[in-house]
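User: structure tokens for this one?
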Amino acid sequence: MEEVKQNKMSSQPVCGLIWKMGLPMIVSMILQAVYNIVDTAFVINMGADGVAGNLALTFAFPVQLLIIAIGVGTGVGINALLSKSLGEGNREKADKTVGNGIFLGIAVYLIFLLFGLFGAEPFIAMQAQGDAQVTEMGTQYLTICCCFSFGAIGFTIYERFLQSTGKTLFSTIAQISGAAANIILDYVFIYPLGMGIAGAAWATVIGQILSLAVAMIFHYFLNNELRNGIKNILPSGKIIGEIYHIGLSAALMQGLLSVMMLGVNLILGTAENPAVVQGSFGIYYKIMQFALFACFGLSNTIISALSFNFGMKDKTRSRACVKWGILNTLIVSVIITVLFESLASPLAELFGMASGNSGREITDVVIVAIRIASIGYALMGFNIAVQGVLQALGYALSPLIISCLRLAVFVFPIVWLFTLSERAANLIWWSFPIAEFLTAVASAFLLISALHKKQLS
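Assistant:
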């Protein structure tokens, strides 16, 4: 038990621990949004092809979200199992979890490789409604992103190896390395080299591969609490089952982001002037990810800290993890709300150089979207924090219910109703804070029930 006592997750004051672990994870998660923000900003400013390029990225984005979803979901299961095993002092199980995590990363990549080769074009065509230019650009971008997705998927696995032992700073450094490379390469590939939307895709995958390489170096040379062995990569049904007992729910929750974006894209396709509304939604949703991923960063911190202390059967520290995890997530989401309300116009102007009236119209709609939808960020933070608590306590269905409510059950019918209005471009953005409020009511009941059952109330 000596190793467990030395672990900061069992000894440091919980509030400080949440911030110390959470801030690097917030930065790391936000930087995942940078890839898509940067791609969109450079593509929409390409000139005559900018508006079509933005639509192509918008239609490809649900699959990119799905890649992140399955990778992160698998990583969450790995993180929770590793933290719990280390908290229990079970080194053998922790080592097998590392090996099986690598195996799962390879398996997930092969699935998206096949989709990139055979499924990218029909997926884009389904949304493009006969627009040949958008279909061609979207297919080109999505094929590259899927066929070389091993960087994004692999990084989510190795990132969790580092996070499960409290080495969140290393995972953040790896993420920053890739994001910086993406920004530089986006400019070089799209403008001086004239590679267009393909340049944006190559910049993204190269940045992700660099992040993976840096994370692997940190893990194999500095992550001494975990042991690596080729024999542990051989799949274990028991270990994989335990990973996905939590991870499947997390993957489905993240995957619902993809379902929500695809569904809203299709609904908005029925609105008046769909190109402007869909293009605005694509830009807004990528900007919104700064808030969303910041909340996920703290949610992941809750999972690591609460899983560890709950595994040690330390109820006092477990209660503190719940309290400070939710409170700190609310603080972060409120700060982001204030920033977004203040900076709505400059954020939207990043995408305001597309040629023609459509570019200006899209920018104006994005400003409205940011100012309305950000009202619900505090509620979003609460819902996501509660999901983290429930995952850490071993619940799989309850967090999934929360995601279904906030991303599908409430959003789709409300968005559809607003598209029937002549003022749809302004009204549809109210769908998101309304959905978050209704979900927060359900989240509160699920949280209270779970804490009572686990004797943590």
